[in-house]
């Protein structure tokens, strides 16, 4: 039986790690956490927490990364879930390889993303939060008749079971209640960057219910969010509504 391979793309500070927890709690699933992160840091020279540890922990060669994403799964596992960050790819990358997988785009209001992002890293620019890249990737998939479902994190948190059931049906796997809760704590599959970014998820046992956020941004950070707003609005206009 061929494996089902699902890639869920987002920017940082979304519900992407909680989504990875949800799928990893299935007995049939293997997950991978941000496989292009080390390549992104090595290529750009950008300073992130635990930069050298991240680079040492993963391959930085694209061919090796892509091979790992299509490697055979262990016996008893037939679903491969990749948590992907759109900002980890180059603006001029050939995206044809993504067509070999089922792709979902996960979005979040940019003001909320920026407010969360700057708690872990002092500087923030539009490309750091992935929304321009998300819009580019969706346009590419549209042009290849592979339009992805776009899911807004706020919608998802209002009805996680409904959205998970929809995705399971879309990729052709059965839904299980195990996807709605998981044990607290770290996972061996968490990237080495987890201590700097995953505190809330590691304390969680399920999806946090949606609640309105009070966002307070500096003038610079507000400008970053405003720059990303048109991309978010365009993606949100086509989001999956259940």
Describe the structure concisely for a colleague.
By secondary structure, this protein is of the alpha/beta class. The chain has helices at residues 16-24, 37-44, 51-57, 62-69, 110-117, 131-143, 153-158, 160-171, 194-197, 199-203, 219-236, and strands at residues 4-10, 29-33, 79-85, 102-107, 150-152. The protein contains eleven helices and five strands.
Outline the fold blueprint.
Elements: E1 4-10, H1 16-24, E2 29-33, H2 37-44, H3 51-57, H4 62-69, E3 79-85, E4 102-107, H5 110-117, H6 131-143, E5 150-152, H7 153-158, H8 160-171, H9 194-197, H10 199-203, H11 219-236
Parallel strand pairs: 1-3, 1-4, 2-3, 4-5
Helix pairs in contact: 2-3, 5-11, 6-11
Largest sheet, in brief, is: 5 strands, parallel
Which CATH C-level class is it? Alpha Beta
Task: Report Rg.
Answer: 17 Å
**How many structural domains?**
1
CATH superfamily: P-loop containing nucleotide triphosphate hydrolases
Measure the end-to-end span.
Answer: 31 Å
Low-confidence stretches: none
Strand content: 5-15%
Keywords: Hydrolase
Family: Belongs to the class-IV pyridoxal-phosphate-dependent aminotransferase family.
Pfam families: Sulfotransfer_5 (PF19798)
GO molecular function: hydrolase activity
């Amino acid at each position: 039986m061929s494996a089902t391979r699902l890639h869920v793309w987002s920017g940082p500070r979304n519900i992407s790690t909680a989504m990875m927890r949800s799928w990893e709690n299935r007995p049939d699933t293997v997950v991978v956490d941000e496989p292009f992160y080390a390549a992104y840091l090595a290529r750009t020279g950008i300073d992130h927490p635990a930069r050298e540890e991240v680079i040492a922990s993963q391959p930085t060669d694209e061919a090796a990364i892509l091979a790992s994403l299509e490697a055979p799964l262990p016996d008893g596992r037939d679903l491969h879930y990749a948590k992907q960050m759109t900002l980890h790819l180059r603006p001029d990358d050939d995206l044809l390889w993504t067509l070999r997988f089922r792709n979902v785009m996960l979005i979040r209001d940019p003001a909320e993303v920026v407010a969360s992002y700057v708690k872990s890293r002092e500087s923030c620019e539009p490309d750091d939060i992935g929304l321009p890249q998300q819009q580019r990737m969706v346009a590419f998939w549209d042009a290849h008749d592979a339009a992805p479902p776009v899911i807004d994190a706020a919608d998802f948190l209002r009805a996680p079971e409904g959205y998970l059931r929809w995705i399971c049906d879309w990729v052709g796997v059965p839904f299980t209640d195990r996807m709605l809760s998981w044990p607290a704590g770290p996972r061996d599959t968490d990237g080495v960057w987890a201590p700097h970014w995953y505190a809330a998820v590691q304390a969680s046992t399920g999806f946090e219910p949606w609640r309105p956020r009070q966002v307070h941004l500096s003038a610079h950070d507000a400008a970053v969010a405003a720059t990303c707003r048109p991309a978010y609005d365009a993606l949100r206009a086509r989001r999956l509504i259940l």
